DNA sequence: CTGAAAGCGCTTACAG
DNA sequence: CTGAAAGCGCTTACAG
């Protein structure tokens, strides 16, 4: 096994001191051009690369960001991470991706490891079970900025970057409204989730904004399968009427679409379908599903710029909401 | 910002030496029970956690594995990573996930960073553009085992863990055969990919194993859209016959399914569909698509045990092929 | 312009 | 059973 090149080795070969080599390599003004040239040449030759552990031990900084998500099998998080990585690369930070598996215990371990590694900052979508946010606040105390995204705590005074749940729901509701559809099934997620509450409330509100008569049936599904069953049981009452189904999330949309295929119904004639999505699932069907887009990519860009402001010293906590836009498929 | 607890701080408070604290903490037999008790107590109280940078600098070991994949938006990789993380956690290793974005340059950067970090080992699915595998072999020289999985280089003498392309293709072909279907459309991926070649060859071979008459049309699609277009243009010739479509991958399946929905055809009566998949996409349709399963999870378990054997000193390079199994949907 | 020295937080061979 | 010391590879204030 070949030894790694160190400053010492370069210094010895050039018969100069380690300090000089170190300075030459970082283009310190004190060092003569001639020395710099020699040092750079040799370090190229020997493929010198500084030992990050030594640097960190010395400087207490890692130039690393951590992104923590409950799950990776999620297009939304995937595009969020892409955005972070793009930005990070430009500033020669690296990005470590952690997966909490939606388990608060694992989340705590990850957090601890982030602290020990003295990462420069953390982007995190918390688990649905996370109750104690004390450890997150403590990291801020330790000088490690924490930016919450997507799944964020209730607690007020922290940095949060969220999808505009209300906005997305209102876009979807408006589209239904504009199509003159007055029979609507709304399938929402777990009652206890804050995004369910936000989306439901706004959806309802917009749909009833005029005093137009509306026949709205709202239900909750905790899984794709449940959404499928609910859709199957609800549709019969709507057959023959002009109606639409709103799916609050990709998971629900997947279940609903299975039911629709099972019943052999065609969009947009037999019924309309509209969702809120990051855009992968809706594109698997024909016609493609119309949806209000929640973009992980946008969210990532917003989160990153917030992070850089924190690193620059801003201690002001802020909640940023990303707006969504309607993406037309042919399903409604 | 609160300072981190160090060995020194504990030693001072207890008026003993740093060495003793260090030893007590790792339950060294030399140290008296009494001292151990005191040290452990105080370190609990002060929430002592060793500085990983210092340890690494000293011991040259990181207890960290790297997993490098071209993309995260891929259920297969996701389940591979899950398997690795499970195993790693048991041995208190941590796992860093890197994404090469299918760019060999980024892949090289990641590799370099793995080397500097002296990760304990690397699991990697290389990019489709990766030609130079020299740097990977060099890592082995540096004592960092590299296990290739899924997308592996041609080069013989390295550790590779692969999906059984031939086996999966033969399972799918056999199922078509067993159903007595003799008109078949086979949609394959990019001609240049080794998995395309392996799958195509075996599929063809099994389908023609008896001398039964077979009407097989094989085409290549580079994208989901292309698969959709091909399906649309090929189906008319098969309508009325008893026929099936084989989709080599999820990407192709997604395109083909869009075409089928567009034409309003029903499985399994109008046609049969069968694929090779990790199982997420097939479950989005009704009826669910029958597929030969390539399990990222299995692959991960296999890769991990291979890794541990490498770390234990095995230098013998090995190629391991994971078998697949048929998962019945109702599509054929 | 260059170098010697201290120190980041740990581990471990050596000495007692 | 415990401690002093060296050293992992770097950076940087200090001195010249």
From TrEMBL, chains A, B:
Record-given protein name: LacI family transcriptional regulator
Domain HTH lacI-type: 5-59
InterPro entries given in the database record: HTH_LacI (IPR000843), Lambda_DNA-bd_dom_sf (IPR010982), Peripla_BP/Lac1_sug-bd_dom (IPR001761), Peripla_BP_I (IPR028082)
PROSITE patterns documented for this protein: HTH_LACI_2
UniProt superkingdom: Bacteria
Alphabetical list of PANTHER family matching this protein: HTH-TYPE TRANSCRIPTIONAL REGULATOR GALS, LACI-RELATED TRANSCRIPTIONAL REPRESSOR
UniProt keyword list: DNA-binding, Transcription, Transcription regulation
